[in-house]
Design brief:
Layout (H helix, E strand, L loop, with lengths): L2 E6 L6 H17 L3 E4 L11 H13 L6 E5 L1 H12 L8 E5 L20 H4 L6 E6 L8 H9 L4 E5 L11 H13 L1
Parallel strand pairs: 1-2, 1-3, 3-4, 4-5, 5-6
Length: 186
């Protein structure tokens, strides 16, 4: 059976088709045929709503097998991690990857749409490795947001990538390598 990977897109006009599809293709190419990448279209990507995205995420998470890998890009990663902290899923996931995720809360972005989880790290599924990837040339979500996440989730692995933009230059080879390395320890 192929290992499932859920990729949650970022927000903005045509992000699903024109931007994040390139990230999914990079991940698919790097991971190979042993992985099934699920890439749902999130509702109203131009104006992401936490309530609507959370409802879609809950359906997607419920459809996954145990040990699936969760990957969230940009605001999709922010919404994913907060939805997981708000309501623990019934599944046991293999790992969580946040790519260029903006931090919502003190020191980061503010939102009228939802309140960030307090004690985020303690509210996440126990024993699930969490990886934070952020390009140092990101001019959309500042690299300091990855450090805010690392502070909020002390057990997370933080990886800054030099000369990489918000889309990590459409190269997810490091993330694919990290996903593959999970097989070695499983």
């Amino acid at each position: 059976m192929k290992r499932q990977v859920l990729f949650v897109q970022g927000g903005g006009e045509s992000v699903h088709d024109d931007w994040d599809a390139k990230l999914v293709e990079s991940l698919r190419s790097e991971l190979g045929s042993n992985y099934e990448i699920r890439y749902p279209r999130m509702p109203n990507e131009n104006d992401p709503s936490y309530a609507k995205w959370k409802a879609t995420l809950q359906k997607e998470l419920a459809a996954l097998n145990d040990d699936a890998i969760l990957v969230g890009h940009s605001i999709g990663g922010t919404m994913l991690i907060n939805a997981l902290a708000e309501q623990l899923p019934e599944r046991e996931f293999g790992a969580i990857f946040l790519i260029a995720a903006p931090f919502v809360g003190e020191g980061g972005w503010q939102s009228d749409d939802w309140k960030p989880q307090r004690e985020l790290g303690g509210r996440l599924p126990r024993g699930v490795p969490i990886y934070l990837y952020h390009g140092l040339a990101d001019d959309t979500a500042p690299p300091s947001h990855a450090e805010l996440f690392a502070h909020a989730i002390p057990h997370a692995h933080l990886c800054h990538l030099p000369d990489r933009d918000h889309q990590l230059n459409n190269d997810l080879s490091e993330i694919a390598a990290a996903i593959k390395s999970l097989e070695a320890v499983a």
